[in-house]
Amino acid sequence: MPLAAAISSLTAPLRDSLRPRKGELTRAAIVEAALAIARRDGLEGLTIGDLAAQMRMSKSGVFAHFGSREELQRAVLAEYASRFVAEVLAPAVRRPRGLARLQAILDKWLKLMRREIEQGCLMISGSIEYDDRPGPMRDAVVGIIRGWSAELQRAIEDAKATGELRADTDAAQLAFEIYGLMLGFHQNARLLRAADSTRRARAGLQRLIEAARSAPPAKPAGAAAGRTGSATPRAARPPRGKARSPSP
User: What interhelical angle do 136-161 and 69-84 show, nearest 10?
Assistant: First the structure.
């Protein structure tokens, strides 16, 4: 399922409930504050009480905008995913279809993850929080991650279609390796605080792409000869000063 569809499934219940304009603005402010808390403490660290205290609202006031803690968590996850799309995917799809677009996606994703070393990445923290906790929130996180993987695979398939990546490239395998490298970058930078994390991540991504690139087309046989200036030799002339044989 594409990422846009995964986000839509999270926000559908909220779109179905009509609220006045003032209520929308208040809800947006609550989600903004909740997103900051979730980046720091995780989605499970969100509580209506703490959020109400931070917003200087009553618990019932916060509750009225979401109906449950789970709906608040879903709204925060949807907001995070929407911002991810706006910062990574939306700018990249303006590039030409093919390798340029795929490389733009990887570049913008890495730049976002560098900022999230301090802010926190909900896709990574959410996968740790819910990997062994069945339920709607686990399903929502799975949908976001699968959606992003599908976008990566689509970009890889596009680069295959343009002939810039080899036709036998396994898009699912390449997306898997890219995702694994990005997870390694996050751990190396956030947990280990390794100063060379970004350089190593860029080098790893470049190696993966280069390994999948199509070989350049072979040059015509005569092209190489033309560059060196070699040509078919002319018939040999007799040396100067040597008399020609008389005609019979």
Answer: 20
